[in-house]
Amino acid sequence: MEFNTQDMKNISQISQKMQGKSEEQVIRELAEMIRTGQGGLTPQKAEQMFQMIKPMLNNEQKRKIEKLLEQLRD
Q1: pLDDT value at position 69?
Q2: Is 21:29 a contact under the CB 8 Å cutoff?
Q3: What distance in Å separates the CA atoms of residue 30 and residue 45, rounded to the nearest whole number?
Q4: How remote is the C-alpha of 69 from its chain's centroid?
Q5: Which of 28, 40, 46, 48 could form a disulfide with 10, with the two C-beta atoms 3.0–4.6 Å apart?
Q6: Cα–Cα nearest to 64, from 15, 13, 17, 3
Q7: How many CB atoms are located within 10 Å of the residue 37 CB?
């Protein structure tokens, strides 16, 4: 899987929009954005990306990623 500069810009912009929101709200909004194609990520591409970075995350970050993946699979 390849990620380009635009993918990283999209992720950065999305993260800025999420500042100040609760964890649950962020997870719901991210899942909805990914499902609808906003931000340039498909559910499949997002899952691949998350699976690729999970080994580099701490337990708390992994827990949050898993919650997001559960939302995407629902």
Answers
A1: 92
A2: yes
A3: 14
A4: 8
A5: 40
A6: 15
A7: 10
> What integer best gives the mean pLDDT of the chain?
85
**With bands split at pLDDT 50, 70 and 90, how would you rate the model's confidence at 67?**
very high
Per-residue model confidence as pLDDT tens digits over 36-52: 988 677 889 889 988 99
Where do the domains of the chain lie? Answer: 23-73
SS3 call for 25 = helix
Cα dist from 60 to 1, 57, 63, 64, whole Å: 25, 8, 5, 6
Take residue 35 and report the two structure tokens written for it: 């499902």
From residue 63, give the alpha-carbon distance in Å to each of 50, 66, 70.
12, 5, 11
Q: Where are the strands (E) in the chain, listed by range?
A: none
